[in-house]
Design goal:
Pfam family, one: SBP_bac_3
Domain Solute-binding protein family 3/N-terminal: 38-261
Protein name: ABC transporter substrate-binding protein
Shape: globular
GO cellular component, one term: extracellular region
Oligomer: single chain
Family: Belongs to the bacterial solute-binding protein 3 family.
Strand content: 15-25%
Number of strands: 14
Structural class: alpha/beta
CATH topology of the largest domain: D-Maltodextrin-Binding Protein, domain 2
Order of helices and strands: HHEEEEHEHEHEEEHEHEHEEEHHH
Number of domains: 2
Length: 277
């Protein structure tokens, strides 16, 4: 009997030690966020008007409004951590942020690493920004030309394989745009949402530039959370909020607020969800 009691105590101690060794984020993330009073979100600060720096240094934009809405819903303070394509998923996996909303394309490969909340909150496609003087007419015109790109962008591999440009990869959007303006590249490969926004922003320095090609490879954007949160309270909350953003027209209103042309994806999803309710 004494030996059984010792064995039971040993097993209990082992289980307790195992539970203590679990990563902190394996617990209920929503409860943890409430407990610390802060929602930590990875955002862009170089992608106007989705997430960018005001002259005052404050990060603002459409995605920032969505992140703030989630924090308000939970009743906590919003903490933003600027991320780039190359580190945003790693920061989420490491527990440095609770959520990422940073113009992130929803791909099958990324879904193996982090959770992608549906319905997707936005959609973009691939195109290039180029000086009009370059005279690009088709994607095949990129062959052998130096093309600026951003590290970690999902379309870099596809465009390289299909059209054989010589990609010159930079860590951030501003770096790549500066290189383009310095005539280090014939074009800048990126999401067409940023290119349209850049060209329509009224900045004289882009007057001699154009988006000359037909956009390809339409891609949905997703809010990223950790895989273990997808079926938990935090994932459920974000999913329900995304449904409401579409159905209520909040996303369409935010496009108007930030001077973005209405997205066919948002219009279609708004109609579909309203009809289904």
């Amino acid at each position: 009997m004494k030996r059984l009691a010792i064995l039971a105590l040993t097993c209990a101690a082992t289980v307790a030690a195992s539970l203590a060794a679990l990563p902190a984020f394996a617990q209920d993330s929503l409860a943890k966020i409430k407990e610390k009073g802060v929602l930590s979100v990875g955002v862009k600060n170089d992608y106007k008007p989705w997430g960018f720096l005001e002259p005052s240094g404050k990060i603002v934009g459409l995605e920032i409004d969505l992140a703030q809405a989630v924090a308000d819903k939970i009743g906590v303070k919003l903490e933003m951590l600027p991320v780039i394509a190359a580190n945003r998923m790693e920061f989420l996996k490491q527990g440095r942020i609770d959520m990422v909303i940073a113009t992130m394309g929803d791909t099958a490969d990324r879904r193996k690493i982090i959770g992608m909340v549906e319905p997707n909150y936005y959609a973009g496609a691939t195109n290039v920004l180029a000086p009009k003087s370059v005279g690009l007419k088709s994607w095949t015109d990129l062959k052998g030309r130096k093309v600026c790109a951003v590290q970690g962008a999902y379309y870099n591999r596809r465009v390289t394989q299909m059209y054989a440009p010589e990609l010159v990869v930079f860590p951030s959007v501003p770096d790549a745009l500066n290189a383009l303006q310095g005539n280090n590249c014939a074009a800048f490969l990126f999401d067409d949402t940023l290119i349209v926004s850049t060209l329509s922003g009224g900045d004289a320095k882009w007057a001699g530039y154009e988006m000359p090609l037909v956009s390809e490879d339409p891609q949905l954007w997703a809010i990223g959370i950790r895989l273990e949160d997808m079926t938990g309270p935090f994932g459920t909350l974000v999913k329900e909020m995304s449904i409401d953003w579409h159905k209520s027209g909040k996303l369409l209103e935010l496009e108007t607020k930030w001077g973005i042309k209405q997205s066919p994806y948002l219009i279609e999803t708004n109609k579909k969800l309203k009809a289904a309710s």
